[in-house]
Amino acid sequence: MQKKDYRHERSKYSLFPIMCRLYKAAFTECPVRMLVYSLVLFANGVIQVVITYGTELFFDCVSLGAREREMSSAIIISFLFLMAAILASHILNGCDNYLGTSVHVVLIGKFEKRMHKKAVKLDPALFEDTEFLDNINKAFQGSGVSGCTFVLEAFMVVMFSQVPYMILMSSYLYTRKPILSICIFLVFVPVVISQYLRIHVFAKLEDETVPCRREYACYHECVTGREYFKETRMLGAYRFFSGLIRETIEKINGRAWKCYGKMAGLEILMRSITLLGYAGVLLLLVYYVLNGSIGVGAFAAVFSSIAVMFETIESAVGQQLGGAFEKMGMVTNYVRFLDMEEMRGEEAAVDYSKGIQAHNVSFSYKGSEEMAVKNASLKIRNGETLAIVGENGAGKSTLVKLLIGSYRPDQGEVRIGQVNTENAKMQCYQRKISGVFQNYQKYKMTLEENIIISASGEQKPDKVKRILEDVDVDMNGTDYPKGLDTVLSTEFGGTDISGGQWQRVAIARGMYKEHEVIILDEPTAAIDPIEEYALYHKFKAMAKDKTAILVTHRMGSCKIADRIVVMDKGQIIEEGTHEELMNKNGKYREMYAAQAQWYAD
């Protein structure tokens, strides 16, 4: 059974099935362009055979006219026919180039869009796995300029232009001398085999170099990135990162040179056989014309076209298919990414008034033997403000992601309203859930765009201004010279704002989305405890009548919560109000006492 599955896997991701999938996807995205481009490619292949036939006809007419010593109408007609075919060839080449570029540009965006749509349907827990991150990197390489669009274009040129040309040309040669058509194809069999081997060689190279490319991008960003530049310069860390970059490049180049060297030796041998075959066909052609087996017109036509045919076959096999085979590793990774299993679930209407319940929930990250959350049970009432506290690494953020259904538990169940997150689509139960997380993003866009990104389908400037005022963002101050239109990045002619201002913008972004549940997962970790305490009080007022979950390792901010949950090593160890937990003389009191000086009046 395993053998059968393995064979199915291999056939599913072999060259022809993948090419058919890409062509079908491209045709779905831009049917008119693809249809016209396919027809132009086919016509371009056919016209080359017409030129060959026109050349034979013209030389036969000229030869006959030379013997009769007169300019016949047949010569003029054959000449005009040949010129018309050549003109048509040039026109079709121009159309080919234009349409090819047009399709190429359109499909780059379309293929990347398919990848983005797929990414949002995958289990968010996968994004914590380094192997999955490598797969995304490989898939992105496959979706770009040198991936799917390049391979698809090569496939179309070969299948719609060069294959029809070679079939028709072989038929033409067969009618003159059968052995000519047979010899041409036999000569190129070794070259086809060598190019096919490129798939496996370069697929292996792609898998080996992806982690190195991610390392290189990271080190390069540390040297040149705006966020890292000041610290790198101040610490004198350039030499350190430069050494890491050099080592990474050497790894990539070493593996690439080994791969290219292996293929170079094989291709030299195969191309030598091709050259001998080309010489043999020409000698055979001379022999046939000398013994009268073919006429002068056929000799001239075949002689002039055989170089074109060899060039076409060389282009099809060596350049088009060769390049495609080299990139097939990238494209296969892209297709495999699109085939990844999505988070399953059914449509469901969520009644948020029933709160959130977790029952005996356990969860571990892929590749980790330890449970990030162990046997946690919790019920959050509708409209309740709950604080989850604990030291760094206690499992607070993981528990929150389980409670809002971003992660699905390995054991136990989570219900949002009456809906089990295991059985429903994520967009159903997260439609009215918003949040601000510790690693919030600083989008290099206008202030207004930074807010409405959480609900881009609506434009409510008054609502934006009200929420910004609630979180103490002064749009009339020097930080925002153009108000809502201020670009929050000096890279795009805007301005830089402080970390505290960014945190307020991030909270406003989370509050802007219509929600019944709101999460604050330590977005204020970079500011001092007193300012955090004040900001949490504002958040409490803004989240009135909503279910709110606060995550923090600072104890002073917990007082605003209706209830506090204490976590340690993935387990819920205490639960109650601030006063109740202080009276228990447990972990909460210990942590609060350790931080008491921060909140002293």
From TrEMBL:
Q: Which controlled-vocabulary keywords does the entry list?
A: ATP-binding, Membrane, Nucleotide-binding, Transmembrane, Transmembrane helix
* InterPro entries listed in its UniProt record: AAA+_ATPase (IPR003593), ABC1_TM_dom (IPR011527), ABC1_TM_sf (IPR036640), ABC_transporter-like_ATP-bd (IPR003439), ABC_transporter-like_CS (IPR017871), P-loop_NTPase (IPR027417), Type_1_exporter (IPR039421)
Q: Which residues cross the membrane?
A: 34-54, 74-92, 150-173, 179-197, 268-288
Name of a matching Pfam family: ABC_tran
Per its UniProt entry, which superkingdom is the organism in?
Bacteria
Q: Write down the membrane topology.
A: Multi-pass membrane protein
Protein name as it appears in the record: ABC transporter ATP-binding protein/permease
